[in-house]
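**Tokenised fold:**
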Amino acid sequence: MAARKKKKSAEPASRGLTPAQTASGAPPAKITALAEGIEADGGRVLASYKDPLGGQWQVLAVLPIEAVKPTPYQRDLSEAHVSSLAERIGQLDRFLDPVIAYRKDEREYWTPNGHHRTAAMRALGARSIAALVMPDSDIAYKILALNTEKAHNVREKSLEVIRMARALAELDPRPEREFAIEFEEPTFLTLGLCYEQRGRFSGGTYQPALKRVDSFLSKKLPGALAQRAEWAATLLELDDAVVEAVKRLKERGFDNPYLKAFVVARINPLRFRRGASMPIEELLAKMLGAAKRFDAAKVKADQGVNLAARLLPEPEGKPWLEQGMLALLKPGLRSLFDLVPEAACVTIYQQIRWLGGLCCPYCGCREVKVKDPHYRKHWRRYCCAVCSHQAGHQVTFTDLHGSILEGSHLRVRQWLWAGLLFVAGETALGIKRELGISTRTAQRMVCLLQLVYFTQRFRSLLAGPVEIDEVYIIAGLKGRAGGLELARPPRKRGWKWPGRGTWETDKVPVLGLVDRQGAIYLIPLPNVQTVTIQPFIEWLVKHGAKVYTDEYCIYQFLRRVGYQHQTVNHSQGEYARGEVHVNTAEGLWNLLQEHLRKHHGVSKVYLPLYVARFEFLHNRRGQTDWSKLMDLLWLGVQADCRSLRQAIREGRVKDLCLVPGVEVG
């Protein structure tokens, strides 16, 4: 095999620009346009210059912090890291590391590498943030590959800290404790001295014990380093004793990568003393004595493995670069929708909004003309000639008039996304996570979509054969549902009540009408009496249709009012007689319970909305999610969304989804 050629190193000072060249020449048009856009967005351009290495133009600017947002491809925010950054930046009272950003839209800048720094500045109450603004958006996809810095491990941090301490001891011999910000942790000083003498020293094994007893010293830095040199010598002696103990364990047949951590944990006198401490000299002396006395014969066969698994975290998975590249390949639904232009989403919605052609929502006439083509971005305002003539003044309306989008601060893209998640059965909490919106906003969106179908659900008769059955859903007054207070102690989860129930006993009956050839209707009721169910059956089931039920006496009226009624006798073990059965309806109840279970408890006040949502999805179970979404949007065009949104805003949803026959005060 031919020897691999060694990569030739670049000649010193052979590439890039000189300092004078970085500011020479006039900026190109896209840099000028970018600078003007930054100024228009309320930012301030500090400089436009060429990158010293590649000669590409970029802008150094200060941006309004509310305009800077992370790209959707980044990991979730770490609150601990943000808190640490905010503390350090606050102590320095300077922001010295500008984020990288590009201008995505008007007053919107995406940063692919500044999520935590931006959050830290917000936590400090900053109004603006320094940024290197790039003219090209492809930087968002390349930043992970360009960022070649990996996280520091204990060895690297310790060596950097001890080298910094030696330099500071000559330049600025103040007390060690005054360098707490620079050194971060006192253990790094002691461990750094050990790493200098023993490159393969296992500092991470001893760090947890040292952190409990070590602190920054009040001695001046040269004296403190001399003191720590003595501790480091003792620590290295301890390490030799631990290595010998591990060797004795291996001679007994133990073979585990965590043996050293196991031994250190066994000899640590503070292991089971929460909150206890002692001088570091005493700790090292006790651990050294215990290590020399360590008896490998007393260790049980499975003890080393079990304890080591508790002591140490799981090993790292993929290297950091592979993790970053993998994150780009699985951005999630949010990032996928971000690739769809807002204009395309608006076009889709406008096609649904004016499916039958542009017409006046007040009188239905088509004598309308465009009054304001730039009412809002993508939307127009129209004027109706007939209504204006009758009213004596101009009557106008917009594309958004009376729709689910009217009065919403969210984009059409987000509504389409939320609608897709809704028809896929996602909960409000799941929609909140996917869209990155508040819980309250997600709950209102779901409530509006549920009401859109609920208020228009009974649109066709069931022709039959129709199966009729009932189920009982355990649902009480959950939380502040409907603004009602509990008149009893809160019931426990898993509460059961044998037999049938009523709305009053928190076991709400749901009447199921299942057309074998068509749709289903599910109607929550206050009770299961003939007088309660008869109006719904006569209203929704075609007169004279075949109707199948069980032997429950509440269905005896069906033959009398003209239906072809047949029953199966469950009490006698009869569940089917030819085509006479209610197995389709009974099989539906398991699906309904599964649908409700993901919501972790539903209030009986709002149970009709959740049942209606299941009904909507089940009636379209053979369609794609996109087809279901189109049906839902069309219902939204026909619904009175202004009234529905107003009811949600005023907390009157319970008045729209009342269980028939129940009065909720």
In short: The chain has four domains: 21-146, 154-311, 334-427, 449-480+501-656. The longest strand covers residues 368-376.
